[in-house]
Write a structure and sequence with these properties.
Number of strands: 11
Order of helices and strands: EHEHEHEHHEHHEHHEEHHHHHEHHEEHH
Number of helices: 18
Strand content: 5-15%
Shape: elongated
Radius of gyration: 25 Å
Distance between the termini: 34 Å
């Protein structure tokens, strides 16, 4: 079956998470992604001090670099830069994650490459974007979460600010970058010309702050931390059962009445403190105390089933071992297994977007550094002698 992006060629100059995740999404949807890495170390995540599989492979690198081929080039060398330019002449997309200015010094910036290929879509994902007073700052997910405001609203009201448990700035920057790339490719089909795409971890983190900024602009006051509670609905948060926690979303009058009936708390329906959603939001701590006192009388899963049977939105709070083993996760193909040459069978997250006509496909595990260098250079017309000379000169690896 045809893949949605199988005619798209992407040159991936990115490292670590945001850019590699963006390019992996494009690869899952069928793009031919060539990961262009520095000779020797490659993507920094290959050497990161994170978790490693039994035979030494970086679990973090494998997580965001499947469906790619790897070519190792020294872009500071004339031969390495020329090889990259030759690739860019026929490529559809280049994605880079250098700090602003570095790509220009290497001769792989938009101005240079668009002169070789005016249909090229050139995407940059950085910490703070290509413009603005912070453009030259190093950008990390933690920093973006802090400066965007996300950390100020994450955590318990009486506790310190904390970052979100997953790297939302990194991952959303990758998602926004992919949207920008595909939008530019659609535009190119009409105009015949490519363009530059610029996004950042900071922009992405701020763009996710929908409820928080709306509260700021409506009230004039910056929102604070609410733990797991919601800004405009209650009850809509995590609550304790006898043996764990569950989340309940009774965010309208119909669901509120159903919840009270299941809990056997019809008294709450007559309680003037909780008459309307506005009242319940205003007194969410009192409400959580009342609900928690009843919920602690039974186990988590018992309450979950009772509430589901009554049509009340509910879900248990689980760890990742539980969620990855869930039969629904399997049914949605959100955990898959791949064959790795060194590690054997390895697990990977599945593709979260399901297309009926051109479904995504996980075709290959993340590549070894420079695994496809010779193959790609031969496709550019380089002879084996020329490739050997590039390797001897340190231009290719």
């Amino acid at each position: 079956m045809m893949l949605a992006l199988e005619n798209l060629t992407v040159l991936d100059l990115t490292q670590v998470m945001a850019g590699p995740y963006c390019c992996q999404l494009l690869g899952d949807l069928g793009a031919d992604v060539l990961k262009v890495e520095p000779i020797g170390a490659g993507d920094a995540t290959r050497q990161a001090t994170g978790h490693r599989l039994p035979n030494g492979e970086s679990a973090a690198f494998l997580a965001v670099n499947r469906n790619k081929r790897s070519i190792a080039l020294d872009l500071k060398s004339d031969a390495g830069r020329q090889a990259f330019h030759d690739l860019a002449r026929d490529a559809d997309v280049v994605v880079e994650s250098f700090r602003p200015g570095v790509a220009a010094r290497l001769g792989v910036d938009y101005e240079t490459l668009s002169g070789l290929n005016d249909q090229l879509v050139y995407a940059s994902v950085s910490g703070f974007g290509q413009t603005g007073p912070y453009a030259q700052r190093a950008g990390y997910d933690l920093i973006a979460q802090a400066m965007s405001g996300i950390m100020s609203v994450t955590g318990d009201p009486d506790g310190p600010p904390v970052k979100a448990g997953v790297p939302v700035a990194d991952l959303s920057a990758g998602l926004f970058c992919a949207v920008g790339i595909l939008s530019a490719c659609l535009s190119r089909a009409t105009t015949g010309r490519g363009q530059a795409v610029d996004t950042s971890l900071y922009d992405a983190a701020l763009a996710l702050s929908i409820w928080e900024t709306s509260e700021l602009w409506a009230t004039g006051e910056p929102p604070g931390r609410l733990g797991s509670a919601h800004r405009v609905n209650a009850p809509y948060q995590a609550l304790p059962a006898r043996d764990g926690y569950l989340t309940i979303g009774a965010n309208n009058e119909r669901l509120w009445q159903r919840l009270c009936k299941v809990l056997g708390r019809l008294d709450l329906l007559a309680d003037e403190r909780f008459t309307t959603n506005t009242d319940r939001v205003r007194r969410r701590d009192e409400l959580a105390g009342e609900l928690g006192r009843t919920l602690r009388e039974r186990d988590r899963d018992e309450w979950v089933q009772l509430l589901l049977d009554a049509g009340v939105p509910v879900g248990p709070i689980r760890d990742y071992a539980e969620s990855c083993a869930d039969p629904h996760t399997a049914a949605r193909e959100m955990v898959v297994e791949l064959d790795h040459p060194a590690e054997g069978r390895v697990r990977s997250l599945g593709v979260p977007v399901k297309l009926t006509g051109t479904p995504a496909e996980i075709r290959r595990v993340a590549p070894d550094l420079g695994q496809h260098t010779d193959e790609v250079l031969r496709s550019l017309g380089r002879t084996d002698a020329e490739i050997a000379r590039m390797r001897a000169e340190g231009a290719a690896g």
